[in-house]
């Protein structure tokens, strides 16, 4: 994969404050953030509000044409992911799609990738993907065309979303018995309606 050689494209983050004096980058402060409460570090091209702040998602471009995830609306749960290259899916075909970015998901969280609703109605499904907090390679997702028609995607089209969620890091232990529950039966035993 082609590496990004422009230093202004490296270590970019969602919700970041950017010093544009040397980089030529035009990213500004996020809406709702008071610039007076953020300090630009003159010794670095990028200054994050807080390096341990879980409201920041660091994203690194691995390809010059990659786009950072974006939130489709103010309160959207997921960040839209772009495919870095155009592609097609034949009926029944499945393919792994690259985004051209890597992420640093905070510890204690995971990234759950799901299909955008505008793509799902075209009978293209996403085979469930989880991005762990210690994963630093390219974020990718898997699509399958379940329709009888070809599916075409353009460069940088938004196809999927990533939702960052907290996870409980529970340690499995062997137990002689489990605490009884009211429910009886296995999968589907709770009924349809």
Would you kindly provide a written description of the structure presented here, covering whatever features stand out?
The protein is an all-beta fold and 193 residues long. It has a single domain, classed as Deoxyuridine triphosphatase (dUTPase) (Deoxyuridine 5'-Triphosphate Nucleotidohydrolase, Chain A). Helix content is 2%, strand content 32%. The chain is built from 1 helix and 15 strands, in the order ββββββββββαβββββ. The protein has a 5-stranded antiparallel β-sheet with strand order 5-6-15-10-12. A hairpin with a 7-residue loop joins strand 5 (70-71) and strand 6 (79-82). Mean pLDDT is 77; it is low at 1-51.
Number of strands: 15
User: Any idea of the CATH topology?
Assistant: Deoxyuridine 5'-Triphosphate Nucleotidohydrolase, Chain A
Relative strand content: 25-35%
Distance between the termini: 49 Å
* Structural classification: mainly beta
Q: How many domain regions?
A: 1
CATH class: Mainly Beta
Any low-confidence stretches, pLDDT <50, length ≥5? 1-51
- The percent of residues in helical segments reads under 10%
